[in-house]
Write a structure and sequence with these properties.
Distance between the termini: 67 Å
Order of helices and strands: HEEHHEEHHHHHH
Radius of gyration: 40 Å
Strand order of the largest sheet: 1-2
Number of strands: 4
Structural class: mainly alpha
Shape: elongated
Length: 325
């Protein structure tokens, strides 16, 4: 093998190496770009589970399954552990919200809707304290969502203590039996009076009914005073609910404004998206039209060359084979 051949061989190897190196870098860049696009899509999917992610409020009427499904998709796409961690934190926050809502007869916080009249199902001080401890460990504890959760748990704690005291007082009245006096009754029902209307209060009133009937049957004067007590009970309940609702009503107003602001932002976004889509469609139409025109010109050019070539060939044939005189 002569030196010239060896030189060409080395040059070929260098060129192949350079092409392979460049090809690897192009492949690597494509992989990185694809991973970035996948991550963005998955992060957008997580954002879609929120009504407003910066303030921490989740979409209304979603379930914890939505977070599990998204986590499974991230794993199947070999997504980053950071994305999985964000999903896990969001899931924990949402589960805390669900467990808090489960304390009440109806959901207190759902999306950006906040009930102004929360009513506990039953005394739940141990569970409330557990949720308060969990909130302190949650990633969104200092966001507006976390502050609302803390406020609602505070209301739950107050109601739970009132429920427990009313239950103890009703039990005490029942246990007095025939020694029960009207004074005992009127004093005992004060704690029951302030409870918000709900199933637990109804159950306590049912337990108290025999005692109330006993006193009513003993004396007509007792009956009149018990009726006055019932009226006072209704007034006390209304006052109690109004005090608790005041803070919630203020937050509800703020959340309503936030919903309005988000709706306006979404409308603006949709408007911009329509404009961008229209521009893209227009560019595609222009590109398609230009391509069509170029293809038409190309066909015309080919046809012209073909015609010219045919004419030239005919002329050459005439010159090479003149007709005999």
């Amino acid at each position: 093998m002569n030196k010239k051949t060896i030189g060409w061989l080395i040059l070929g190897l260098v060129v192949l190496g350079a092409v392979g190196f460049a090809g690897y870098h192009i492949y690597r860049e494509n992989v990185i770009q694809s991973e970035k696009e996948t991550k963005k899509v998955l992060n957008d999917r997580l954002t879609d589970l929120y009504e407003d992610q910066p303030s921490g409020y989740f979409k209304a009427d979603i379930s914890v399954d939505a977070f599990d499904e998204l986590a499974d998709e991230v794993k199947s796409q070999r997504g980053e552990s950071r994305t999985l961690e964000d999903i896990d934190q969001a899931k924990k926050n949402f589960k805390l919200q669900e467990e808090m809502n489960a304390l009440f007869e109806k959901d207190v916080l759902n999306g950006l809707d906040l009930s102004a009249h929360p009513v506990l199902k039953a005394p739940s001080e141990e569970k409330i304290n557990t949720l308060k401890g969990e909130l302190d460990e949650r990633s969104a504890k200092d966001k507006s969502w976390g502050q609302d959760i803390r406020m609602i748990l505070g209301i739950a704690e107050t109601q739970s203590k009132d429920f427990s005291k009313a239950d103890a007082d009703v039990t005490n009245l029942i246990n007095k039996g025939t020694s029960l006096t009207l004074t005992d009754y009127l004093e005992g029902v004060k704690t029951l009076a302030v409870l918000p209307d709900g199933k637990y209060k109804e159950a306590l009133l049912e337990k108290l009914a025999p005692v109330k009937d006993q006193l009513t049957n003993e004396n007509n004067d007792f009956a009149a005073q018990i009726q006055q007590s019932d009226a006072s009970m209704a007034a006390a309940e209304k006052s109690y609910q109004e005090r608790q609702a005041k803070e919630l009503a203020a937050r509800n107003k703020e959340l309503t404004e936030l919903k309005k602001e988000l709706a306006e932002k979404q409308a603006t976004y949709d408007s911009y998206k329509d404009i961008i889509d229209s521009i893209d469609d227009s560019r595609k139409d222009d590109s398609s039209r230009k391509k069509s025109e170029e293809e038409s010109r190309s066909r015309e050019s080919d046809s012209s060359r073909s015609s010219s070539s045919s004419s030239s060939s005919s002329s050459s044939s005439s010159e090479n084979h003149p007709e005999d005189d």
